[in-house]
Write a structure and sequence with these properties.
Number of strands: 7
Number of domains: 2
Order of helices and strands: HEHEEHHHEEHEEHH
Distance between the termini: 39 Å
Structural class: alpha+beta
Number of helices: 8
Length: about 160
């Protein structure tokens, strides 16, 4: 089975690259990240629901083919996600859903490494540091860019995805 990059997989890779669990392919952290990860994995048809495992704050599954594919994409992400397209939007939406929140209509991202910050900046969004958060500017344009792929923003109410 040849795995090809799709926006759905780019979203999952974005979440995984920011909040990796040490075991399997998964995410760790706040409960909303796990819920978004499970929903994305099932919608993309990556695995079945009975193969998704949880342990404390971790949600993960095992699949050596997808693990290898995800690592290949992660190694080449600065070249794959350098233009504004659906793949980049999905990848950044995954990062935002795993590590971001919206406060008073302003997106704030916390805990992403410099290589992920560079991807966001190369897409034309300047990151401004405010305390422990990074704020992509212009904020409305950033929200518009990731909204079609972000599970936190798709519900229609731009609630705080990180309570």
């Amino acid at each position: 089975m040849k795995i090809k990059l799709t926006p759905e997989l780019a979203y999952i890779i974005g979440m995984w690259s920011v909040r990796k669990s040490r075991i399997g392919i998964g995410v760790k952290g706040l409960p909303h990240a796990g819920e978004f990860f499970i929903k994305a994995v099932l919608n993309a048809g990556v695995t079945t629901s009975n193969k998704i495992l949880t342990s404390g704050k971790k949600v993960y599954f095992y699949h050596s083919g997808y693990r290898k594919f995800f690592k290949e994409i992660e190694e080449d992400e600065e070249h794959r996600f350098k233009k504004r397209n659906e793949f980049s939007a999905a990848f950044v939406a995954g990062m935002f859903d795993a590590a971001g929140k919206i406060v008073d209509g302003i997106p704030k991202i916390q805990g992403i490494k410099l290589d992920k910050q560079l991807i966001i900046e190369r897409l034309g969004f300047r990151l401004i540091k405010e305390g422990k958060y990074l704020i992509p500017t212009p904020p409305r344009e950033f929200i518009k860019f990731i909204k079609p792929y972000s599970q936190a923003l798709q519900s229609g109410n731009e609630r705080d995805p990180c309570p």
